[in-house]
Amino acid sequence: MKSILIVLAGYLIGSVSFSIIVFWLIKREDIRKYGSGNAGMTNVLRIAGKGPAAMVLAGDALKGVISVYIGFSFGNPTLALLTGLAAMVGHTYPIYFGFKGGKGVATGLGVILALTPDVTAVALAVFILSLLISRYVSLSSILGAASVPVSMIILQKPLSVLAMGILAVSLVIYRHRTNIKRLYNGTEQKIGQR
Known about the structure:
- This protein has one domain.
- Helices cover 75% and strands 0% of the residues.
- It has helices at residues 2-14, 18-27, 41-48, 50-74, 77-92, 105-115, 117-134, 137-154, 159-175, 177-185.
- Helix 5 packs antiparallel against helix 6.
- The model has no long low-confidence stretch (mean pLDDT 94).
């Protein structure tokens, strides 16, 4: 019962959508009514600018870090993995905002950072390199996420961490399915386009 409550706490923390909150504080509007309709950092960047987007990125990543540390504090490493994953689910399907949230990238970044900083460094490098070359945030997010389980295998992370990484990446890629279609059709917006 205790473990279930701790994982639930991770979900509830993840459900705090900083993109919705920050944009509401600035514009008194729901970010999901603008741009791509996604409650994420990239949409805030396009609509509101770099400052608000940076606040969203920091807040959403912090949710992942806090959730993992709660799992470590009250249980074992496996519980920390589950709590971090629950935070990502909360971010994508937030109970406070009609289960319509972001795509899990920033919160996933916080989760992976808390669990395996070396894997995070590789994922960030892949993301930045891809963004510099393609200027597609969605493609860069997908490639950065996809590098996570590969890095975990190469760096010989525990099987439980690898399993969590695969589940987290699967969630991120699933949430990017409309972006993948737009990338295929050549209609996806590049960074800097509004």
